Amino acid sequence: MRRRQLLSGLAVTAAVTSGARLPSAAEQAPLGDVLVARLRDALLGVGSTTVVPPDRLRTELDRAHVEYDGCHYAALSVRLPRLLTSGHTHLAAPGRPTDHALLAEVYLLATRMLTKLDASELGWMAADRARSLAESGDHVLTRGEAARNLAVLARRAGWHREAMTIALTAADHPDLRNLGAPGNAERGLLIQSAAYTAARAGDQQGMREAAALAREAHGPLLRAPGGGFSPATVTLHRISAENSLGDPGAALTAARSLTPAALPTVERRARYYTDLAGAFGQLGRREECVRALLGAEHHAQEETHARPAVRALLSGLLVSGRTSPELRGLAARCGVR
């Protein structure tokens, strides 16, 4: 009932191998472009790469999750496209069954990466393939994650009502409700996404109701899907949501209630500092904005240098007031002039 009420109320190349050196700051700035290009080629079936044996796919996927969580994007730019190509190679091989759920998980990770790097067109392709693969078997959590990724992409396209429908319908599915604690945690992630969508649509009340529902969805910390679900991740989304609603003061209040160390991954901690910078930027507190961005860089250098959202924020700071050596240095490291 609360889900239906909420919905109805919404108006709305650095090639890296094991042991290779890390890229310099100058190389990290276009690293996002490299990662997108390699994922594009893998999605289109062009180019060439080493094929991972079937019995190594799960291990390689686990490593890719670790690299994503740790924002090691240079390594991920090699491993993730290789996983996509390898999964399809084995899928097409006669007499060699491929775990559809595992390949769906690869596509889910690719979707999250493409979405982060503002490559939404490719993200739609990866998300649709993930959904098709997840629906080919009894993979309840994977289906839930596929729905969440589609909801995120719909939100970014401005289709707020559709994004809410996708996320809340998936959260209310009996299969997910009957899965126990892991299902409850996945439901929390979906409702958490719905809260952020409500904020993007300007629905403050809907955002806060959905955030309250997410907090009620008790379950274990799920590591792989987007860093996991916990009260800390709900608060992190609240910071982003308040920024989206144009209430940076509320975003800072939420941020003060959260210790970054409570967040499950480096990627989530970097998001915390970037969102904090966004709030300070809206308030015109330039020095604090730059310090927050430097905090993001300290935790996740490759993420900060490659992420388009950070570059956009830096570009605005460079043209809107006095610049400091710290700001100019960070902008240069991110490839912003």
How would you concisely characterize the structure shown here?
With 337 residues, this protein is an all-alpha fold.
Give a written overview of the molecule.
- The structure is a single chain.
- 71% of the residues lie in helices and 0% in strands.
- It has 337 residues and is mainly alpha-helical.
- The radius of gyration is 20 Å and the shape is globular.
- It has helices at residues 2-8, 25-28, 31-44, 57-69, 73-92, 100-116, 120-134, 140-156, 160-171, 174-177, 181-200, 204-216, 231-244, 248-256, 266-282, 286-299, 301-306, 308-320, 325-333.
- The relative contact order is 0.10.
Cα distance spanning the termini: 51 Å
Task: Indicate the proportion of strand residues.
Answer: under 5%
The topology string of helices and strands comes to HHHHHHHHHHHHHHHHHHH
State the major sheet: none
Counting helices, strands and paired strands, the structural category is mainly alpha
**Uncertain ranges:** 1-22
Number of helices: 19
- Total number of β-strand segments? 0
Give the rounded overall mean pLDDT.
85
Shape: globular
The portion of residues assigned to helices is over 70%
Radius of gyration, in Å, reads 20 Å
Which helices and strands, and how do they pair?
Layout: H1 2-8, H2 25-28, H3 31-44, H4 57-69, H5 73-92, H6 100-116, H7 120-134, H8 140-156, H9 160-171, H10 174-177, H11 181-200, H12 204-216, H13 231-244, H14 248-256, H15 266-282, H16 286-299, H17 301-306, H18 308-320, H19 325-333
Helix pairs in contact: 3-5, 4-5, 4-6, 5-6, 6-7, 6-8, 7-8, 8-9, 8-11, 9-11, 11-12, 11-13, 12-13, 13-14, 13-15, 14-15, 15-16, 18-19
